[in-house]
Design the sequence.
């Protein structure tokens, strides 16, 4: 069974703080993704990575950065948290590139920025 | 206009009912199609892929209509455990271009 874990289920941070969200997958998957999910908007892709030290911007990268130093770990960084970054953050992984792979999601981190 | 549109619901149905959801997508070049299920405060999980010929998995049937650019999900003999949000997902190229609908919420009542 693929397992994707995220470091926190719930997080409360103050405006301006630097925030780290960690994601780890245990199935040697090549590709990892960070999404945010907001009511009425669906999941939106923030960043993704196809390999160690490789990153690509998704649809809404502004205000975020990522790090992939090891294959199994993909971190999302909010450089200076703002209230409009209050959201559910979901990490996902897939075994390869291609249109037909299932995405395996972590349990999500519900971030509140006050 | 959103790339993937779903009726948000909620759909409230009694146990045993048949319920159908539709989803429309705007990119005619879309390559692959999926339904994911998301329980309250949980992560999305793949329910089924959707193939051009249509496919069935137990009580669930998925259909794809490329000409009209919509996919559908039919649930027969609804169970209480089917209560969830169903996400329509369309993949335009590689798996970095997956587009998610906002979801349709289903509540099955006794």
Sequence:
């Amino acid at each position: 069974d693929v397992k994707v874990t995220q470091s926190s289920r719930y997080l409360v941070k103050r405006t301006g703080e630097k925030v780290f969200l960690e994601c780890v997958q245990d199935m040697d998957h090549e590709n990892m993704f960070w999404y945010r999910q907001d009511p009425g908007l669906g999941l939106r892709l923030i960043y993704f990575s196809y390999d160690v030290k490789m990153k690509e911007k998704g649809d809404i990268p502004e205000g975020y950065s990522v790090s992939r130093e090891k294959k199994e770990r993909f971190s999302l960084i909010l450089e200076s948290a703002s209230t409009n970054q209050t959201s559910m953050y979901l990490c996902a992984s897939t075994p390869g590139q291609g249109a037909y792979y299932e995405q395996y999601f972590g349990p999500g981190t519900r971030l509140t920025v006050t | 206009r959103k790339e993937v549109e779903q009726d948000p619901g909620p759909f409230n149905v009694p146990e045993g009912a048949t319920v159908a959801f539709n989803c429309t997508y705007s990119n005619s070049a879309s390559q692959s199609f999926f339904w994911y299920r998301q329980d309250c405060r949980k992560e999305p999980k793949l329910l089924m892929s959707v193939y051009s010929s249509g496919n069935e998995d137990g009580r669930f049937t998925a259909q794809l209509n490329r000409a009209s650019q919509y996919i559908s999900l039919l649930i027969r003999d609804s169970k209480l455990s089917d209560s969830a949000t169903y996400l329509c997902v369309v993949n335009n190229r590689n798996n970095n271009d997956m587009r998610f609908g906002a979801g349709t919420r289903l509540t099955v009542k006794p």
